[in-house]
Specification:
The protein contains 3 helices and no strands. The chain has 67 residues and is mostly helical. The protein is flat.
């Protein structure tokens, strides 16, 4: 949520990074064709915002409507 305290976001990011770097977790994800990418909170935010803009444009240009 937008009002989440920065300290909470930092803790979540730290713990997620720690877990995603565990050998058994990386192995399970790799078995499913997934790859972990470590990045900062700011990098994730920028990526997420760019994805929203990208898919917003695709949806608008396609004329898709929620039916």
């Amino acid at each position: 949520p937008a009002a989440t305290p920065k300290a909470v976001i930092a803790k979540l990011n730290s713990e997620m990074s720690r877990v995603l770097n565990l050998a058994d977790v990386k192995e399970r994800l790799a078995e499913q064709g997934l790859e972990t990418v470590g990045n900062s909170v700011e990098q994730f935010d920028a990526f997420f915002r760019a994805e929203i803009l990208k898919y917003d444009k695709i949806i608008r240009e396609s004329g898709a409507r929620p039916d």
